[in-house]
Amino acid sequence: MKRPQPWLLLVLALGFGTAAAYLALSYIRNQTTPLLSAEAPRGQVLLAVKDLPIGAVVGEQDVRTVEWPGDAIPPGFLSVPEEVVGRGVITPVKLNEPLLEGKLAPKGTGGGLPTIITEGMRALSVRVDEVIAVAGFVIPGTRVDVLLTKAVGGENVTRAILQNVQILAAGQSIQIDAEGKPQTVAVITVLLSPEQAEMLTLAANQGRIQMTLRNMLDTVRVVTPGARADALLRVGGRRTSRPRPRVSARAATVPRQTETIIEVFRGGQKTLTKFNN
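^ thats the sequence. predicted structure below, dont judge the formating
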């Protein structure tokens, strides 16, 4: 029997290999085509087209819709313009930042200062000067302690009556400027509970109030006995004694006794009598 030529075997191997590769490639294409042709699900979220400060009312021109990859939109993200238009901003929103439910006031409440007053709290405005307002550094968002100085029993007493009070507005501004510079204002609005509002109103009419600026991260309440006017004269917790009057050496010298001599003549005899004064 004649043996087949090697080249014939090579041609058959190449033919069978090509056919097998074609069949495998066709199978893979048939399996992946439906996956490639199916469009991935997408959602929509709303972004701000500009910076929105506290108190601003969102309009249709302030937002735009963008696609969100996938259909799992994080909770709180808003996707329909009708959900945000007409609502007030209670937390600053930056350019291209998603609008969240927690950054907007409830529907129908509008904008401005009332939207940032939390439930159960009150906004109270107090007339101040530059000294009371810590030289203009009491600006929206900062926190202060309120001190009251009042005459008690003929003596001036100063004590902190309110602590960690939030400043809502300085003058007509409820938003911190970009540079955070101090500003001179005539009125400061603070966020208080109803009881604190009563206390501050009474204090403003009974004595002089002043504010001390505190660290935003410092929320610890400090209990102090207050400061009294007589404490200003104490050194190391003890009252200084009054200086004793100095007595001059001349005044302290005991006066010398003086003598008085009287001469008496009796029958031609002279008698001397001494008297000590």
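The chain is about 20% helix and 30% strand.
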